[in-house]
Please model this.
Amino acid sequence: MGKVLLQCFLILITPILGIFFRLQDALYAVLAILSIEISPIEAILSSLPLSERGVSLVCGLLISSILLWVLRKVNKEKVFNTGDKYGEYPLSLYYFASKILGYGFVTLVRVPIHLQFQLVIKDLFDNVKVDDNTRAYVQPVKVMKKNMEHISNEVNLVLNDTYKILEEQIPSNKRHLPTIIIFNGNKFSGVRNFNTKFVDEIRKQTNKYSQNYSQINIFATTNTKHNKAFIEECFKNARRTGFKNLTVFQFDPINNSFAKNYSILKS
Model:
């Protein structure tokens, strides 16, 4: 957040300074550093029907534009949300970092799962990074189903990966719904594994039940590599399953439950 605010400050402050200070020489110095011919710019500025303050404001805007161009080139190879802080920023900030400041990479590590869905589905960044410490480990998965006889337009998808999800952690108003529970097959040790069979099973179940239900509720303790894989396989663009509504429930460690919910896809 701090580096974004700093870059925004640098971009915005220059035109403001142009109102109070003469910035023509500053513009010419920037052009000289970039090996851009100054004479044509001088001629254009001198022909403008503006006061000296107006010309200085134009110079400030030009400096800001050049600064933004430089920042976009530098940010293209950078990861936006680095560091140890939890990346629960507004989606609009991620959009601004990508589309305006030109950041080329985003990591899903330390990002809430509902935002992981948004970032992958909306394709905000050219490159999406995941946890490098996840090891490939193919193992059988287990599928359980509950309340499938209950008539509803909603279905729960419970994905047990790094930790097991308990029934009492599901909101009480969702427990009676048809529920598909998929276990990755590990011993819930907290170790991050990437299991292609786990992703394949998620794809299989979402394909099957998208024909019967219009809304799917996701409850997951999945690692970032699994998340990126099954979101792309099941919910992104042309490969999206037929669910009209997708809601992701975020685990709240304070209440030890999936109390908060976020609408990702909505008809």
Remarks:
- Strands lie at 105-107, 127-129, 135-136, 142-146, 154-160, 179-183, 193-194, 215-220, 245-252, 257-265.
